[in-house]
């Protein structure tokens, strides 16, 4: 039986998780989110404890009991390693999305040991639940795109493109796997129109965001920046800060993601370098682990204060 981790979230994020009840759809209808507070932009601006503002997650479409540990063990990923994945990575796995890159060990047909990194995702098949692997490409020629489009994609831009059948879609180059992500434009533009209505964007703002541009709003000394990002389940990312904050790496992971049995060590972006069992922690890791425990205890006390009776 897997032990349960306790995560301390703000009340706002608990509401987000509660109301996001869609399954694995092309887009998340976020109109219900805004019904909680007509001035959601003020809510975004008030979230000062976190730099990147959370967008509602898709509902988990897999249970923890669905995880095929026997298959994952063939790639050097033990049950303890999977159970210790940080919350962000576990949400992706159980939501049917790709995880961050994980270090894997396997054998080729000649029995030679192979080490490589790959993202994993769960998929339902006629024979049960299986695992999809996605390894990063060393480079991507971006064949089929113009030189200008290639330059913009490599610069991290999101492009709105019309194909020969006059269908529109967004494209974005994932800087971790070097693979191109695509999404039908109509699904993301549906969500942009909801933002426009509920937050009060004017036509020019909505049009600029639909074109893949990043737009910053300010209220006093506070800033919030919106734009299309195909890493987000809604296709829209909101960041507390200016375009400078927006241009920073997305989907950042903690350097040390402490779990129940050990710790995942990341490169600070969307890739894990290694997994270290608890008995192999360095002195520095032990000090950090103790500090994380103390910080979580303080957070728990603030959420559920003890009055001494």
Topology:
Blueprint: H1 11-19, H2 31-35, H3 40-46, H4 69-72, H5 79-83, H6 87-94, E1 102-107, E2 113-125, E3 128-134, H7 147-154, E4 159-162, E5 168-173, E6 180-184, H8 185-200, H9 203-210, E7 215-219, E8 222-228, E9 236-240, H10 243-247, E10 256-258, E11 262-266, E12 272-277, H11 283-303
Antiparallel strand pairs: 1-2, 2-3, 4-5, 5-6, 7-8, 8-9, 10-11, 11-12
Shape: globular
The separation of the N and C termini measures 34 Å
Radius of gyration: 21 Å
| SSE series | HHHHHHEEEHEEEHHEEEHEEEH
Count, helices? 11
Main sheet record: 3 strands, antiparallel
Major sheet: arrangement of strands: 1-2-3
Question: How large a portion of the residues is in β-strands, by DSSP E?
Answer: 15-25%
Structural class: alpha+beta
Low-confidence stretches: 1-58, 303-309
- What percentage of residues falls in helices of 4 or more residues? 25-40%
Q: Based on DSSP secondary structure assignment, what is the total number of beta strands?
A: 12
Q: Average pLDDT, to the nearest integer?
A: 76
What does it look like?
- The chain is α+β, with helices and mostly antiparallel strands and about 300 residues long.
- Among the domains are: about 40-50 and about 140-245, no CATH class; about 65-95 and about 100-135 and about 255-275, no CATH class.
- It contains eleven helices and twelve strands.
- The strands form four sheets. A three-stranded antiparallel beta sheet has the order 1-2-3.
- Strand 8 and strand 9 (about 235-240) form a beta hairpin.
- The longest helix is centred in the C-terminal third of the chain and has 21 residues, at about 285-305.
- The two termini are about 35 Å apart.
